[in-house]
């Protein structure tokens, strides 16, 4: 195997490891989000808090910028993560979408 192929394979293995870590983190985030949703429902509140979502989106986009990541990419990523976690919470808790 050529040096190029070896380096490429090693880098791809690192990407695979990072992707696995991301999936584990997303799973943990969904579990925490569901616990928050359960707590909210038990206390007569809706799962979605639009003000909090806006606050989080801005904070995550800013944090991404400080790490050298494009703001729009970071913002879109966290919107997708948030949307997914809300959907999972609704599904797991049997809540009606807001």
Key words describing this protein structure:
single chain; about 100 residues; mainly alpha
Kindly state the number of beta strands.
0
The coarse silhouette is elongated
Strand content: under 5%
Structural class: mainly alpha
**Helical amount among residues, as a percent range?**
over 70%
Largest sheet: none
State the low-pLDDT regions, or none.
none
Secondary-structure element pattern, one letter each = HHH
Distance between the termini: 55 Å
**For the CA atoms, what is the radius of gyration?**
18 Å
Number of helices: 3
**Nearest-integer average pLDDT:** 95
What does this structure look like?
It is a single chain. The protein has 98 residues and is mainly alpha-helical. Helix content is 82%, strand content 0%. It has 3 helices and no strands. Helix 1 crosses helix 3 and helix 2 packs antiparallel against helix 3. It is elongated. It starts with a helix and ends in a 5-residue tail after the last helix.
Describe how the helices and strands are arranged.
Layout (H helix, E strand, L loop, with lengths): L2 H40 L7 H17 L4 H23 L5
Short description:
This protein has 98 residues and is mainly α.
